[in-house]
Fold:
Amino acid sequence: MKSFLLILLLGTVLFCQAQEQELPLMYSVEKALHYEKERSFTPKENRGNGALQIPFFDDFSTYSLPTDNPDVPEDLRRWEDDFAHLNQNMAVLPPTVGVATLDGLDETGYPYQFSADSYGLADVLTSRPIDLGGLTADNSVYLHFRYQCGGFGNAPDEQDSLLVEFLAPGGGPDAWFQVWSVPGDLDPEVFNDAFIPVDDPLYLQDGFQFRFRNYSTLSGNLDHWNIDYVFLNNNIDPENFDVVEIAFVYPELTLLNTYVSMPWTHFIVNPEVHMLETTNTLSRNLSTSQADNIFSGFKVDYEGDVQDFPNGFQTVIVNPFEVFEVPYFVNDGTTEDFVYDTSVNDTCAIFDVSFYQNSIGILEGEKLGVVDNDSIVFQQVFTNYYALDDGSAERAYSLNETGAKVAMRFNVEVEDTLLGLFIHFTPFQNDVSDETFLLRAWTNDGGQPGSEIGENFNFHSPQYFNDGYNVFAYYEYDDPLVVSGNTFVGFIQNSGAQLNVGLDKNTNNNSSRLYYQLGLGASWQSSGIQGTVMIRPVFSSGKSFVWNGIEELSSSANIYPNPSQANFTIESEEAIKSLEVMNVFGQKIHQEVLNGEQTCRLDASLWAEGSYFIVIRTSKGVIREKLIKQ
Structure:
């Protein structure tokens, strides 16, 4: 009855307008007529010792942006800024696994300007200085790269563009000159070749640099340009350019047959059931020549203990430019069946998995530490959550109806305590962090959501982060829920605003597991949108706390007096970063940012009498409490 009354208060259903949406698949924003004032970019202090020598090459098969991570060798760092997004998921059939993507998000994964009509210069990818001294136009120096407009993400519009600029060394900060550009109305699934001559004496000097830039909507994960195989060298003939390389095209995600990740305590109960029988990798011959006798296999590494499973066959003939699959036998009943070793730990385990093939690559032995495309690596993570997505949002999923519900089905292997959900809300067009939703869990009723499990009345809001791309926020259920078997988890939104959950386009679990409901009285419907929404249920799984890499949820606060007629005092052991107060309808009535105080006072003198919910974000976690105004 409480749930019914709450939903009734949220509003009535507008069936003619409500719908399930994938954004920005069919979404186009009208661009502003003005460009933003050009932003200045400060290079990272990571140039290394002197200019780079040609050939300059980066296929983004490994991290090559500036970093303080000592595990990334200096020779791998090809660029002096980190605004581009290096990833293995955004491109459709890239030349090699790994691309650099330019979009409307800054280096932290947050929009440059979180308003729908913002538009202008967005990302930049700037090479480190390169020594071209002593070369002339007769040396046929070219910058070559391959680019894609859109890929799995949002294809730029015609008025968007990708451009290349060259730096004339010694010319000062205004010595950047545009030498190439292309509008955003290309086939979103095709990679195009670009050859730009470097033949002007202004550029043929020690300290030459080049950079990629994009004009884009600045309000989110939009207008994607994918760049791969960047190569600068002399003696290049664009008409007869050949690359001798066999390269992986896509990453591998999992050796499990359903999940990308699952709780370790659930997996070890019946591990063989969860293993793939076979899997396939996709590779490409980049050359105009035939490739022969390619061998391959996979390895699994747990803390230095490596198991090797080479294929018992070779790919004998690969034609020029051919894209081809290679099968691998994981747990298909052969004599070398592989199952993750369940004896390594009792609560969690992380395995490093790599697929490999012959080392056949461009500039073999001259790449100065750049890893060749002859291997792809991923981590199989077993902690305390289930994941059907690969952790990368290429698009956004949303409903646009007050009281709409989203429910994703997970088969919980053993009876366990459901604590909360990891959800990735992707920044897209409008900041909806003031909107609210309620967590929900449902039983399974013939493959659809059935009755609600427990009662959840604490309001939550979408959270955006500046800790990088694809960050998940953790949301707790009011009370832990004991569940097992097929269970649906998700939320009910309190308004018609589009909350924009991340949509992974490299996997496709929506069709068989995602259901939605468009308000009071509506029936559950199976999702018709390809991909996987980025919602992950979190379980106790033998752990004493939950951690998602952003914040430990171990904070506590003292609030007094409570109830109060006028003011509440809040004391926390940790520094308080922000406060949000919501009424029982999920409307945010108060919000403030603090400067790390451990004690603050909340003026409630103008509030109506009744119950309120407060969200306190501290340096160590999130605290949710109930306030009563008398």
